[in-house]
Design brief:
319 residues, six-stranded mixed β-sheet, 31% helix, 12 strands, alpha+beta
């Protein structure tokens, strides 16, 4: 969003006479907590939103033609691209009639200046765990739907979410991108050998057990949509002093006393609550300040409303 108007607002309304000569951008860099506080006292946020509003969100599906399903999500200036690739795999030994879903998230150095090249950061690893848990707990996909030949062959769905631009609230954006990409997946239809094949049945079984190329069924060329049973979506709240900020930006995240991410399903049931550590030392010196039972209850109600809005957006895009 355009920040010109908020900066002018800050210069002429938020700055007292003693600091009126200081440019808003300079004050923003030197005194970031005070800068945010003076905006919130006027019931507005630095990017022009009111305190209780979310950033504009958009979803595009089928963005990557080489993937079996994909989605591009923009949440303000945060952008996430997610692709799904389906491959053959042996079913789990203890669950021979199921397949797999493997979720991965990447925060490359190109997405934000403060992220350095190298191994995955702690934030990226926590994000991967959060996404995998959200998909598994909600039962987004029945893993039995991914079985092709019980005990012999199944689908494994590799779900990769990549942050293109990081401007805060990456968990909400990534989960939305993952769910949208899964809704966009179309699986190939394997051609299974019938009993009247030229080869006898014993030879067929040996080939399937060997795992060689000859035992892997070819695809017919037709596709079928992946059945998605649930759409878990997240809403993240940041706590700054006495204020609760939904959908925080990267600038706001650096100043928060704590965050709370709530995942809800289609029925409005809470699937998970995550409270990661603040990105930096809390501005108030009191981690978790303001996160009372009453505050959590209010966040749950707002999270359900946010999830309803996102599901309506997904329904419109996928139709």
């Amino acid at each position: 969003q355009d920040t010109t108007c908020p900066l002018l607002f800050f210069r002429f309304v938020c700055l007292p006479c003693s600091t009126a000569v200081m440019e808003a951008e300079t004050f923003r860099r030197v005194h970031p907590s005070e800068y945010l506080t003076r905006f919130l006292e006027q019931h507005i946020r630095p990017d022009g939103r009111v305190v209780s509003s979310c950033r504009k969100t958009s979803v595009n599906v089928g963005s990557v033609h080489t993937a079996d399903g994909s989605a591009l999500v923009r949440m303000g200036r945060t952008s996430v691209l997610c692709g799904v690739k389906a491959e053959y795999a042996n079913p789990p030994l203890d669950r021979p009639d199921e397949g797999y879903i493997v979720v991965n998230a990447t925060l490359p150095a190109m997405c934000a200046s403060r992220i350095r090249p190298g191994p995955p950061t702690e934030q990226a690893q926590s994000l991967c765990h959060f996404l995998q848990q959200a998909i598994d707990r909600a039962g987004v996909v029945d893993l039995k739907d991914l079985c092709i030949i019980p005990g012999k062959l199944s689908w494994v769905l590799y779900v990769d979410a990549v942050c293109l631009d990081y401007d805060g609230n990456i968990a909400d954006a990534c989960l939305l991108a993952v769910v949208a990409a899964l809704k966009n997946v179309r699986l190939g239809v394997p051609v299974l050998k019938s009993s009247d094949d030229d080869k006898d049945e014993d030879d067929d079984e040996e080939e399937e057990d060997s795992g060689e190329a000859g035992g892997i069924p070819a695809l017919s060329g037709d596709t079928r949509p992946l059945t998605v049973h649930c759409l878990p979506l997240a809403a993240t709240f940041g706590f700054f002093s006495s204020y609760t900020l939904i959908d925080p930006t990267d600038e706001e995240e650096q100043l928060l006393d704590g965050t709370l991410t709530i995942v809800t399903d289609d029925a409005g049931n809470v699937q998970a609550i995550s409270k990661p550590a603040p990105a930096t030392a809390p501005s108030s010196g009191n981690p978790g300040r303001g996160i009372t039972p009453e505050a959590i209850k209010g966040c749950m109600a707002r999270a359900k409303k946010r999830a309803q809005d996102l599901r309506a957006l997904l329904a419109k895009v996928i139709q």
